[in-house]
Automatic annotation (TrEMBL):
<dbReference type="InterPro" id="IPR032867">
    <property type="entry name" value="DYW_dom"/>
</dbReference>
<dbReference type="Pfam" id="PF13041">
    <property type="entry name" value="PPR_2"/>
</dbReference>
<feature type="repeat" description="PPR">
    <location>
        <begin position="173"/>
        <end position="207"/>
    </location>
</feature>
<protein>
    <submittedName>
        <fullName>Pentatricopeptide repeat-containing protein</fullName>
    </submittedName>
</protein>
<feature type="repeat" description="PPR">
    <location>
        <begin position="72"/>
        <end position="106"/>
    </location>
</feature>
<dbReference type="InterPro" id="IPR046848">
    <property type="entry name" value="E_motif"/>
</dbReference>
<comment type="similarity">
    <text>Belongs to the PPR family. PCMP-H subfamily.</text>
</comment>
<dbReference type="InterPro" id="IPR046960">
    <property type="entry name" value="PPR_At4g14850-like_plant"/>
</dbReference>
<feature type="domain" description="DYW">
    <location>
        <begin position="388"/>
        <end position="480"/>
    </location>
</feature>
<dbReference type="GO" id="GO:0008270">
    <property type="term" value="F:zinc ion binding"/>
</dbReference>
<dbReference type="InterPro" id="IPR011990">
    <property type="entry name" value="TPR-like_helical_dom_sf"/>
</dbReference>
<dbReference type="InterPro" id="IPR046849">
    <property type="entry name" value="E2_motif"/>
</dbReference>
<dbReference type="InterPro" id="IPR002885">
    <property type="entry name" value="PPR_rpt"/>
</dbReference>
<dbReference type="GO" id="GO:0009451">
    <property type="term" value="P:RNA modification"/>
</dbReference>
<dbReference type="Pfam" id="PF14432">
    <property type="entry name" value="DYW_deaminase"/>
</dbReference>
<keyword id="KW-0677">Repeat</keyword>
<dbReference type="Pfam" id="PF20430">
    <property type="entry name" value="Eplus_motif"/>
</dbReference>
Protein backbone atom coordinates (compact mmCIF):
# COMPACT_ATOMS: atom_id res chain seq x y z
CA UNK A 1 0.00 0.00 0.00
CA UNK A 2 3.05 2.21 -0.16
CA UNK A 3 3.22 2.82 3.58
CA UNK A 4 6.81 2.76 4.90
CA UNK A 5 7.27 0.48 7.95
CA UNK A 6 9.15 2.00 10.88
CA UNK A 7 10.96 0.47 13.88
CA UNK A 8 7.66 -0.08 15.74
CA UNK A 9 6.38 -2.17 12.83
CA UNK A 10 9.56 -4.22 12.89
CA UNK A 11 9.41 -4.78 16.66
CA UNK A 12 5.91 -6.20 16.31
CA UNK A 13 6.89 -8.50 13.45
CA UNK A 14 10.03 -9.70 15.26
CA UNK A 15 8.13 -10.64 18.38
CA UNK A 16 5.57 -12.46 16.21
CA UNK A 17 8.49 -14.36 14.64
CA UNK A 18 9.89 -15.15 18.10
CA UNK A 19 6.63 -16.64 19.30
CA UNK A 20 6.49 -18.88 16.20
CA UNK A 21 10.22 -19.71 16.18
CA UNK A 22 10.37 -18.25 12.63
CA UNK A 23 14.11 -17.50 12.47
CA UNK A 24 14.40 -17.18 8.70
CA UNK A 25 11.67 -14.56 8.57
CA UNK A 26 13.33 -12.89 11.57
CA UNK A 27 16.63 -12.71 9.69
CA UNK A 28 14.84 -11.00 6.84
CA UNK A 29 13.45 -8.41 9.25
CA UNK A 30 16.93 -8.01 10.73
CA UNK A 31 18.31 -7.24 7.27
CA UNK A 32 15.44 -4.88 6.57
CA UNK A 33 16.15 -3.00 9.82
CA UNK A 34 19.79 -2.58 8.79
CA UNK A 35 18.72 -1.18 5.43
CA UNK A 36 16.22 1.11 7.09
CA UNK A 37 18.91 2.28 9.51
CA UNK A 38 16.86 1.66 12.65
CA UNK A 39 19.03 -1.00 14.32
CA UNK A 40 20.09 1.50 16.97
CA UNK A 41 16.59 1.14 18.48
CA UNK A 42 17.12 -0.77 21.74
CA UNK A 43 13.66 -2.34 21.81
CA UNK A 44 14.13 -3.69 18.30
CA UNK A 45 17.53 -5.16 19.14
CA UNK A 46 16.12 -6.79 22.27
CA UNK A 47 13.32 -8.23 20.25
CA UNK A 48 15.86 -9.74 17.82
CA UNK A 49 17.98 -11.04 20.72
CA UNK A 50 14.90 -12.71 22.12
CA UNK A 51 14.13 -14.31 18.74
CA UNK A 52 17.67 -15.59 18.16
CA UNK A 53 18.12 -16.66 21.79
CA UNK A 54 14.91 -18.68 21.83
CA UNK A 55 15.90 -20.42 18.62
CA UNK A 56 19.41 -21.25 19.82
CA UNK A 57 21.28 -18.84 17.50
CA UNK A 58 23.70 -17.72 20.18
CA UNK A 59 26.33 -16.33 17.82
CA UNK A 60 23.78 -13.94 16.42
CA UNK A 61 22.80 -12.93 19.96
CA UNK A 62 26.42 -12.20 20.88
CA UNK A 63 27.03 -10.15 17.74
CA UNK A 64 23.95 -8.06 18.41
CA UNK A 65 24.85 -7.31 22.03
CA UNK A 66 28.45 -6.50 21.15
CA UNK A 67 27.58 -4.11 18.35
CA UNK A 68 24.89 -2.31 20.28
CA UNK A 69 25.70 1.36 20.79
CA UNK A 70 23.99 1.48 24.18
CA UNK A 71 23.86 -1.90 25.87
CA UNK A 72 20.85 -1.66 28.12
CA UNK A 73 20.04 -4.06 30.90
CA UNK A 74 17.26 -5.92 29.09
CA UNK A 75 19.71 -6.96 26.34
CA UNK A 76 22.11 -8.35 28.89
CA UNK A 77 19.36 -10.19 30.73
CA UNK A 78 18.10 -11.71 27.50
CA UNK A 79 21.65 -12.74 26.66
CA UNK A 80 22.14 -14.53 29.99
CA UNK A 81 18.73 -16.19 29.67
CA UNK A 82 19.46 -17.33 26.10
CA UNK A 83 22.60 -19.09 27.25
CA UNK A 84 20.86 -20.60 30.28
CA UNK A 85 18.18 -22.07 28.02
CA UNK A 86 20.50 -23.34 25.32
CA UNK A 87 22.87 -25.57 27.25
CA UNK A 88 25.64 -22.97 27.54
CA UNK A 89 24.80 -21.73 31.02
CA UNK A 90 28.47 -21.17 31.89
CA UNK A 91 28.68 -18.58 29.08
CA UNK A 92 25.58 -16.96 30.52
CA UNK A 93 27.40 -16.51 33.83
CA UNK A 94 30.39 -15.19 31.85
CA UNK A 95 28.21 -12.53 30.25
CA UNK A 96 26.90 -11.60 33.66
CA UNK A 97 30.47 -10.92 34.78
CA UNK A 98 31.08 -8.82 31.64
CA UNK A 99 27.94 -6.89 32.39
CA UNK A 100 29.15 -6.10 35.90
CA UNK A 101 32.48 -4.98 34.51
CA UNK A 102 30.62 -2.70 32.07
CA UNK A 103 29.23 -1.03 35.19
CA UNK A 104 25.62 -2.13 34.70
CA UNK A 105 23.73 -2.92 37.89
CA UNK A 106 21.69 -6.14 37.85
CA UNK A 107 17.93 -6.00 38.28
CA UNK A 108 15.34 -8.69 39.05
CA UNK A 109 15.38 -9.85 35.41
CA UNK A 110 19.15 -10.41 35.61
CA UNK A 111 18.82 -12.41 38.78
CA UNK A 112 16.02 -14.58 37.36
CA UNK A 113 18.14 -15.36 34.28
CA UNK A 114 21.10 -16.14 36.53
CA UNK A 115 19.05 -18.46 38.72
CA UNK A 116 18.10 -20.40 35.61
CA UNK A 117 21.74 -20.60 34.50
CA UNK A 118 22.89 -21.77 37.94
CA UNK A 119 20.19 -24.43 38.08
CA UNK A 120 21.47 -25.86 34.81
CA UNK A 121 25.05 -25.79 36.06
CA UNK A 122 24.07 -27.31 39.40
CA UNK A 123 26.77 -25.46 41.34
CA UNK A 124 25.94 -24.66 44.96
CA UNK A 125 28.78 -22.10 45.27
CA UNK A 126 27.27 -20.11 42.40
CA UNK A 127 23.82 -20.35 43.96
CA UNK A 128 25.23 -18.85 47.14
CA UNK A 129 26.85 -16.13 45.03
CA UNK A 130 23.52 -15.25 43.46
CA UNK A 131 21.95 -15.32 46.92
CA UNK A 132 24.51 -12.74 48.07
CA UNK A 133 23.79 -10.62 45.02
CA UNK A 134 20.05 -10.73 45.70
CA UNK A 135 20.60 -9.55 49.26
CA UNK A 136 23.07 -6.85 48.21
CA UNK A 137 20.81 -5.43 45.52
CA UNK A 138 17.77 -5.49 47.78
CA UNK A 139 15.87 -7.81 45.42
CA UNK A 140 14.71 -10.06 48.22
CA UNK A 141 11.39 -8.24 48.40
CA UNK A 142 10.57 -9.44 44.89
CA UNK A 143 8.53 -12.60 45.52
CA UNK A 144 9.43 -14.12 42.14
CA UNK A 145 13.14 -13.75 42.89
CA UNK A 146 12.88 -15.19 46.40
CA UNK A 147 10.74 -18.06 45.13
CA UNK A 148 13.25 -18.77 42.36
CA UNK A 149 16.02 -18.88 44.93
CA UNK A 150 14.24 -21.25 47.29
CA UNK A 151 13.35 -23.48 44.33
CA UNK A 152 16.99 -23.50 43.24
CA UNK A 153 18.24 -24.51 46.69
CA UNK A 154 15.70 -27.35 46.84
CA UNK A 155 16.85 -28.59 43.44
CA UNK A 156 20.47 -28.50 44.59
CA UNK A 157 19.62 -30.69 47.57
CA UNK A 158 19.71 -27.91 50.21
CA UNK A 159 16.19 -28.01 51.55
CA UNK A 160 17.26 -26.31 54.80
CA UNK A 161 18.41 -23.27 52.78
CA UNK A 162 15.08 -23.23 50.91
CA UNK A 163 13.24 -23.20 54.19
CA UNK A 164 15.35 -20.30 55.42
CA UNK A 165 14.61 -18.27 52.28
CA UNK A 166 10.91 -19.12 52.55
CA UNK A 167 10.92 -17.87 56.14
CA UNK A 168 12.30 -14.54 54.93
CA UNK A 169 9.65 -13.96 52.24
CA UNK A 170 7.15 -11.32 53.29
CA UNK A 171 3.57 -12.53 52.88
CA UNK A 172 4.42 -15.47 50.62
CA UNK A 173 2.00 -15.82 47.69
CA UNK A 174 0.59 -19.01 46.19
CA UNK A 175 3.65 -19.53 44.01
CA UNK A 176 6.05 -19.26 46.98
CA UNK A 177 4.00 -21.65 49.14
CA UNK A 178 3.76 -24.09 46.25
CA UNK A 179 7.49 -23.92 45.51
CA UNK A 180 8.27 -24.76 49.13
CA UNK A 181 5.74 -27.60 48.99
CA UNK A 182 7.40 -28.88 45.81
CA UNK A 183 10.75 -28.90 47.65
CA UNK A 184 9.29 -31.02 50.45
CA UNK A 185 7.69 -33.34 47.90
CA UNK A 186 10.81 -34.08 45.90
CA UNK A 187 12.79 -34.65 49.10
CA UNK A 188 10.11 -37.00 50.45
CA UNK A 189 9.14 -34.91 53.50
CA UNK A 190 5.44 -35.75 53.46
CA UNK A 191 4.56 -34.71 57.01
CA UNK A 192 6.25 -31.32 56.61
CA UNK A 193 4.44 -30.84 53.29
CA UNK A 194 1.10 -31.50 55.01
CA UNK A 195 1.90 -29.03 57.79
CA UNK A 196 2.94 -26.45 55.22
CA UNK A 197 -0.30 -26.96 53.32
CA UNK A 198 -2.31 -26.42 56.50
CA UNK A 199 -0.28 -23.26 57.10
CA UNK A 200 -1.06 -22.06 53.60
CA UNK A 201 -4.78 -22.60 54.10
CA UNK A 202 -4.63 -20.84 57.47
CA UNK A 203 -2.84 -17.89 55.88
CA UNK A 204 -5.81 -17.56 53.54
CA UNK A 205 -3.83 -18.41 50.40
CA UNK A 206 -5.94 -20.42 47.96
CA UNK A 207 -4.17 -23.56 46.63
CA UNK A 208 -4.38 -24.36 42.92
CA UNK A 209 -3.94 -27.52 40.85
CA UNK A 210 -0.13 -27.23 40.97
CA UNK A 211 -0.21 -27.01 44.78
CA UNK A 212 -2.23 -30.22 44.89
CA UNK A 213 0.11 -32.01 42.48
CA UNK A 214 3.02 -31.38 44.83
CA UNK A 215 0.98 -32.18 47.92
CA UNK A 216 -0.14 -35.52 46.48
CA UNK A 217 3.36 -36.27 45.29
CA UNK A 218 4.69 -35.52 48.81
CA UNK A 219 2.14 -37.92 50.33
CA UNK A 220 3.10 -40.52 47.76
CA UNK A 221 6.85 -40.16 48.33
CA UNK A 222 6.28 -40.63 52.07
CA UNK A 223 3.78 -43.49 51.83
CA UNK A 224 0.93 -41.42 53.32
CA UNK A 225 -1.84 -43.31 51.53
CA UNK A 226 -4.82 -42.35 53.69
CA UNK A 227 -3.81 -38.69 53.78
CA UNK A 228 -3.18 -38.59 50.03
CA UNK A 229 -6.59 -40.07 49.25
CA UNK A 230 -8.16 -37.49 51.52
CA UNK A 231 -6.41 -34.59 49.74
CA UNK A 232 -7.43 -36.02 46.38
CA UNK A 233 -11.06 -35.90 47.53
CA UNK A 234 -11.00 -32.42 49.07
CA UNK A 235 -9.26 -31.03 45.99
CA UNK A 236 -12.45 -31.32 43.95
CA UNK A 237 -15.01 -31.30 46.77
CA UNK A 238 -13.71 -28.28 48.70
CA UNK A 239 -11.65 -26.36 46.14
CA UNK A 240 -13.55 -27.29 42.99
CA UNK A 241 -10.38 -28.36 41.19
CA UNK A 242 -11.05 -31.23 38.79
CA UNK A 243 -8.21 -33.79 38.87
CA UNK A 244 -5.78 -33.57 35.94
CA UNK A 245 -3.35 -36.15 34.56
CA UNK A 246 -0.65 -35.13 37.08
CA UNK A 247 -3.00 -35.81 39.97
CA UNK A 248 -3.93 -39.22 38.60
CA UNK A 249 -0.30 -40.16 38.15
CA UNK A 250 0.40 -39.15 41.78
CA UNK A 251 -2.55 -41.26 42.92
CA UNK A 252 -1.43 -44.27 40.86
CA UNK A 253 2.00 -43.88 42.46
CA UNK A 254 0.52 -43.49 45.95
CA UNK A 255 -1.63 -46.60 45.68
CA UNK A 256 1.01 -48.62 43.86
CA UNK A 257 3.64 -47.80 46.46
CA UNK A 258 1.64 -49.45 49.22
CA UNK A 259 1.09 -52.52 47.10
CA UNK A 260 -2.49 -51.65 46.13
CA UNK A 261 -1.75 -52.40 42.49
CA UNK A 262 -5.30 -53.39 41.61
CA UNK A 263 -6.73 -50.24 43.21
CA UNK A 264 -4.30 -48.20 41.14
CA UNK A 265 -5.28 -50.11 38.00
CA UNK A 266 -8.98 -49.61 38.72
CA UNK A 267 -8.47 -45.88 39.29
CA UNK A 268 -6.72 -45.58 35.92
CA UNK A 269 -9.44 -47.55 34.14
CA UNK A 270 -12.14 -45.37 35.69
CA UNK A 271 -10.50 -41.97 35.11
CA UNK A 272 -12.40 -39.65 32.75
CA UNK A 273 -9.21 -38.51 30.96
CA UNK A 274 -7.10 -40.60 28.62
CA UNK A 275 -4.19 -41.82 30.78
CA UNK A 276 -0.76 -40.69 29.55
CA UNK A 277 2.63 -42.32 29.96
CA UNK A 278 3.19 -40.67 33.37
CA UNK A 279 0.03 -42.34 34.74
CA UNK A 280 0.87 -45.76 33.33
CA UNK A 281 4.53 -45.27 34.26
CA UNK A 282 3.57 -44.83 37.93
CA UNK A 283 1.74 -48.17 37.90
CA UNK A 284 4.59 -49.78 35.97
CA UNK A 285 7.06 -48.67 38.67
CA UNK A 286 4.86 -50.31 41.31
CA UNK A 287 4.73 -53.53 39.26
CA UNK A 288 8.54 -53.54 39.20
CA UNK A 289 8.86 -53.02 42.95
CA UNK A 290 6.28 -55.68 43.79
CA UNK A 291 7.47 -58.06 41.05
CA UNK A 292 3.98 -58.28 39.52
CA UNK A 293 4.97 -59.50 36.07
CA UNK A 294 1.45 -60.23 34.78
CA UNK A 295 0.18 -56.69 35.32
CA UNK A 296 3.60 -55.29 34.42
CA UNK A 297 3.41 -56.86 30.96
CA UNK A 298 -0.02 -55.39 30.36
CA UNK A 299 1.09 -51.92 31.42
CA UNK A 300 4.29 -52.20 29.37
CA UNK A 301 2.25 -52.81 26.19
CA UNK A 302 0.32 -49.57 26.82
CA UNK A 303 3.56 -47.67 27.45
CA UNK A 304 5.19 -49.07 24.31
CA UNK A 305 2.29 -47.83 22.21
CA UNK A 306 2.22 -44.40 23.91
CA UNK A 307 5.98 -43.84 23.83
CA UNK A 308 7.50 -46.22 21.28
CA UNK A 309 10.90 -44.56 21.41
CA UNK A 310 11.37 -44.45 25.19
CA UNK A 311 14.05 -47.04 25.92
CA UNK A 312 13.47 -46.84 29.69
CA UNK A 313 10.25 -48.86 29.51
CA UNK A 314 11.93 -51.67 27.61
CA UNK A 315 14.82 -51.71 30.07
CA UNK A 316 12.46 -51.79 33.03
CA UNK A 317 10.46 -54.72 31.62
CA UNK A 318 13.66 -56.58 30.81
CA UNK A 319 14.92 -55.91 34.36
CA UNK A 320 11.65 -57.22 35.80
CA UNK A 321 12.07 -60.46 33.87
CA UNK A 322 15.73 -60.74 34.91
CA UNK A 323 14.86 -60.19 38.56
CA UNK A 324 12.36 -63.06 38.33
CA UNK A 325 14.97 -65.27 36.66
CA UNK A 326 13.07 -65.22 33.34
CA UNK A 327 16.20 -64.73 31.27
CA UNK A 328 14.67 -65.76 27.97
CA UNK A 329 11.86 -63.18 28.23
CA UNK A 330 14.40 -60.58 29.28
CA UNK A 331 16.55 -61.18 26.25
CA UNK A 332 13.47 -61.07 23.99
CA UNK A 333 12.72 -57.56 25.23
CA UNK A 334 16.30 -56.53 24.67
CA UNK A 335 16.19 -57.96 21.15
CA UNK A 336 13.03 -55.98 20.48
CA UNK A 337 14.81 -52.86 21.69
CA UNK A 338 17.69 -53.51 19.33
CA UNK A 339 15.31 -54.16 16.46
CA UNK A 340 13.75 -50.75 17.04
CA UNK A 341 17.17 -49.17 17.14
CA UNK A 342 16.73 -47.93 20.71
CA UNK A 343 19.83 -47.46 22.78
CA UNK A 344 20.21 -47.44 26.48
CA UNK A 345 20.93 -44.00 27.87
CA UNK A 346 24.27 -44.43 29.65
CA UNK A 347 24.12 -43.83 33.40
CA UNK A 348 26.30 -41.10 34.85
CA UNK A 349 26.62 -39.27 38.14
CA UNK A 350 27.74 -35.76 38.98
CA UNK A 351 29.26 -34.29 42.10
CA UNK A 352 30.42 -30.73 42.81
CA UNK A 353 33.89 -30.13 44.19
CA UNK A 354 36.23 -27.15 43.97
CA UNK A 355 33.82 -25.04 41.86
CA UNK A 356 33.63 -27.82 39.30
CA UNK A 357 31.21 -30.57 38.43
CA UNK A 358 32.91 -33.95 38.31
CA UNK A 359 31.23 -36.50 36.04
CA UNK A 360 31.45 -40.26 36.38
CA UNK A 361 30.22 -42.96 34.00
CA UNK A 362 30.01 -46.71 34.66
CA UNK A 363 33.49 -48.14 35.24
CA UNK A 364 34.93 -44.70 34.49
CA UNK A 365 38.70 -44.38 34.81
CA UNK A 366 39.10 -41.01 33.17
CA UNK A 367 39.16 -38.95 36.39
CA UNK A 368 42.68 -37.78 37.36
CA UNK A 369 42.13 -39.16 40.87
CA UNK A 370 40.79 -42.42 39.46
CA UNK A 371 43.26 -44.68 41.25
CA UNK A 372 42.50 -43.21 44.67
CA UNK A 373 38.76 -43.37 43.96
CA UNK A 374 38.85 -47.09 43.14
CA UNK A 375 41.02 -47.84 46.17
CA UNK A 376 38.56 -45.97 48.39
CA UNK A 377 35.59 -47.75 46.80
CA UNK A 378 37.19 -51.17 47.32
CA UNK A 379 38.01 -50.28 50.91
CA UNK A 380 34.40 -49.25 51.64
CA UNK A 381 32.89 -52.22 49.81
CA UNK A 382 35.28 -54.47 51.77
CA UNK A 383 33.93 -53.03 55.02
CA UNK A 384 30.36 -53.62 53.80
CA UNK A 385 31.14 -57.25 52.90
CA UNK A 386 32.65 -57.73 56.37
CA UNK A 387 29.37 -56.49 57.78
CA UNK A 388 27.74 -59.40 55.94
CA UNK A 389 26.24 -57.61 52.94
CA UNK A 390 25.97 -59.28 49.51
CA UNK A 391 25.51 -57.49 46.21
CA UNK A 392 21.98 -57.43 44.79
CA UNK A 393 22.91 -58.66 41.35
CA UNK A 394 19.34 -59.09 40.12
CA UNK A 395 19.42 -55.45 39.03
CA UNK A 396 21.95 -56.13 36.34
CA UNK A 397 20.49 -56.63 32.88
CA UNK A 398 22.69 -59.29 31.41
CA UNK A 399 22.63 -62.98 32.00
CA UNK A 400 26.29 -63.29 32.95
CA UNK A 401 28.42 -65.05 35.55
CA UNK A 402 27.77 -64.06 39.16
CA UNK A 403 31.32 -62.80 39.74
CA UNK A 404 31.27 -60.68 36.58
CA UNK A 405 27.90 -59.27 37.57
CA UNK A 406 29.15 -58.26 40.99
CA UNK A 407 32.13 -56.61 39.40
CA UNK A 408 30.00 -54.61 36.94
CA UNK A 409 27.57 -53.48 39.58
CA UNK A 410 30.32 -52.35 41.93
CA UNK A 411 31.47 -49.81 39.35
CA UNK A 412 28.17 -47.99 38.85
CA UNK A 413 28.70 -44.28 38.47
CA UNK A 414 27.01 -43.29 41.74
CA UNK A 415 29.39 -45.53 43.69
CA UNK A 416 32.38 -43.88 42.05
CA UNK A 417 30.90 -40.47 42.87
CA UNK A 418 30.34 -41.49 46.50
CA UNK A 419 33.93 -42.76 46.79
CA UNK A 420 35.15 -39.45 45.35
CA UNK A 421 32.88 -37.57 47.76
CA UNK A 422 34.33 -39.51 50.70
CA UNK A 423 37.82 -38.54 49.55
CA UNK A 424 37.26 -34.84 49.00
CA UNK A 425 34.52 -33.61 51.32
CA UNK A 426 35.13 -32.95 54.98
CA UNK A 427 33.62 -35.32 57.51
CA UNK A 428 30.38 -33.84 58.78
CA UNK A 429 29.40 -32.38 55.41
CA UNK A 430 26.88 -34.20 53.25
CA UNK A 431 27.91 -35.78 49.96
CA UNK A 432 25.54 -34.52 47.26
CA UNK A 433 25.26 -36.40 43.98
CA UNK A 434 23.07 -36.10 40.90
CA UNK A 435 22.32 -39.18 38.80
CA UNK A 436 20.75 -38.94 35.32
CA UNK A 437 18.79 -42.22 35.61
CA UNK A 438 16.92 -43.95 38.39
CA UNK A 439 19.30 -45.30 41.05
CA UNK A 440 19.58 -49.10 41.01
CA UNK A 441 18.72 -51.30 43.99
CA UNK A 442 22.30 -52.27 44.66
CA UNK A 443 23.62 -48.70 44.67
CA UNK A 444 20.68 -47.76 46.91
CA UNK A 445 21.55 -50.47 49.47
CA UNK A 446 25.23 -49.62 49.23
CA UNK A 447 24.59 -45.92 49.84
CA UNK A 448 22.54 -46.82 52.92
CA UNK A 449 25.36 -48.99 54.28
CA UNK A 450 28.03 -46.40 53.51
CA UNK A 451 26.00 -43.75 55.36
CA UNK A 452 26.00 -46.11 58.34
CA UNK A 453 29.59 -47.34 58.22
CA UNK A 454 31.22 -44.02 57.29
CA UNK A 455 28.78 -41.97 59.42
CA UNK A 456 28.07 -39.64 56.50
CA UNK A 457 24.91 -38.16 55.06
CA UNK A 458 24.64 -38.91 51.35
CA UNK A 459 22.09 -37.12 49.19
CA UNK A 460 21.42 -38.54 45.74
CA UNK A 461 19.06 -36.86 43.31
CA UNK A 462 18.07 -39.41 40.69
CA UNK A 463 15.66 -38.99 37.79
CA UNK A 464 12.71 -39.46 40.16
CA UNK A 465 13.46 -37.75 43.46
CA UNK A 466 15.99 -37.01 46.21
CA UNK A 467 17.28 -39.80 48.45
CA UNK A 468 18.68 -38.75 51.82
CA UNK A 469 20.81 -41.55 53.21
CA UNK A 470 21.74 -41.36 56.88
CA UNK A 471 22.55 -43.93 59.57
CA UNK A 472 21.70 -46.82 57.26
CA UNK A 473 18.27 -45.68 56.08
CA UNK A 474 16.95 -43.71 53.15
CA UNK A 475 14.26 -41.03 53.25
CA UNK A 476 12.41 -42.76 50.38
CA UNK A 477 11.66 -45.76 52.58
CA UNK A 478 13.10 -47.98 49.82
CA UNK A 479 10.42 -47.07 47.32
CA UNK A 480 11.31 -45.02 44.29
ZN1 LIG B 1 23.75 -49.05 40.59
ZN1 LIG C 1 16.06 -43.89 48.59
Amino acid sequence: MGIEPNEVTLISITSACASRGAVDEGKYIHGFALKLGVLWEVKLVNSLINLYGKSGYLDAVCRLVETMPVGNIVSWNLMIASHAQNGTAADGVGYFNLMRRAGINPDDGTVLSLLEAVENLGLLKLAEGVHGLITKCGLYANATVATGLLDLYAKLGRLNYSLKVFGEVNNPDKVAWTAMLAGYAVHGNGREAMELFEGMVKAGVEPDHVTFTHLLSACSHSGLVKEGKNYFDIMSQVYGIEPRLDHYSCMADLLGRSGLLNDAYELIKRMPLKPNSAVWGALFGACRVYGNIELGKEVAVRLFSLDPSDSRNYIMLSNMYSAAGLWRDASKVRALMKEKGLIRNPGCSFIEHGNKIHRFAVGDRSHPESEKIYTKLEEVIGKIREAGFMSKTEFILHDVEQAVKEDMISKHSEKLAIAFGLLVTNAGLPIIITKNLRICGDCHSTAKLISLIEKRTIIIRDSKRFHHFAAGICSCGDYW
